[in-house]
């Protein structure tokens, strides 16, 4: 594949960026919108980031990666892979990068999420289409984050 395959979604949230950031990085908050998964990380560049949850009574890691770049309250980039998918070898070339960009203006935060580049990873087109999901991408999760933060 030569064309970049990147999922990109954006949402406006009527809350300060600090509150949105907390929803993105606080394990007690992430489990409310990320399918019951909590983030586990020390949030430093190069450190692991795990998304842990329970499946049939057993704790497991659903997604893993590493922090690439972080500017608290403004920007986060991390790599990600599903460690439970035997069809995708757990090698650096198969990790995708997810970014969160936050910009606040008059108490309204614009949150932009990107995930990709699927064109460079194993089964990239299939994984892209599953994530893109007819244009939905991250939208269902972003709507849940918006509801969580705006109803605090």
Concise structural overview:
The protein has 4 helices and 7 strands.
The helicity comes to 10-25%
Q: Architecture, according to CATH?
A: 2-Layer Sandwich
SS content category: alpha+beta
Q: What is the global morphology?
A: globular
Overall pLDDT confidence: 94
Over all CA atoms, what is the radius of gyration? 15 Å
What is the CATH level 1 assignment?
Alpha Beta
Task: List the uncertain runs.
Answer: none
SSE order: EHHEEEEEEHH
Ends apart, CA distance between termini: 44 Å
Can you list the strand order of the major beta sheet? 1-7-6-5-4-3-2
In CATH terms, the superfamily is START domain
Strand content: 35-45%
- Tally of helical segments: 4
Structure description:
The chain is α+β, with helices and mostly antiparallel strands. The protein has a single domain, classed as 2-Layer Sandwich (Alpha-D-Glucose-1,6-Bisphosphate, Chain A, domain 4). Strands 1-7-6-5-4-3-2 form a seven-stranded antiparallel sheet. Helix 1 crosses helix 2 and helix 1 packs across helix 4. The longest helix is centred in the C-terminal third of the chain and has 12 residues. The radius of gyration is 15 Å and the shape is globular. The model has no long low-confidence stretch (mean pLDDT 94).
């Amino acid at each position: 594949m030569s064309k970049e395959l990147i999922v990109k979604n954006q949402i406006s949230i009527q809350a300060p960026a600090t509150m949105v950031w907390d929803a993105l990085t606080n394990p007690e908050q992430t489990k409310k919108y990320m399918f019951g998964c909590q983030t586990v990380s020390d949030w430093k560049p190069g450190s692991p980031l795990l998304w842990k949850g329970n499946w049939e009574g057993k704790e497991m890691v659903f997604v893993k990666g590493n922090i690439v770049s972080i500017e608290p309250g403004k920007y986060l980039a991390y790599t990600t892979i599903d460690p439970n998918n035997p069809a995708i070898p757990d090698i650096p070339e198969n990790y995708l990068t997810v970014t969160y960009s936050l910009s606040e203006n008059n108490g309204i935060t614009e949150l932009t999420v990107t995930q990709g580049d699927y064109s460079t990873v194993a089964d990239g087109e299939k994984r892209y289409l599953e994530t893109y999901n007819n244009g939905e991408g991250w939208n269902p999760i972003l709507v849940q984050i918006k509801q969580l933060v705006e109803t605090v």
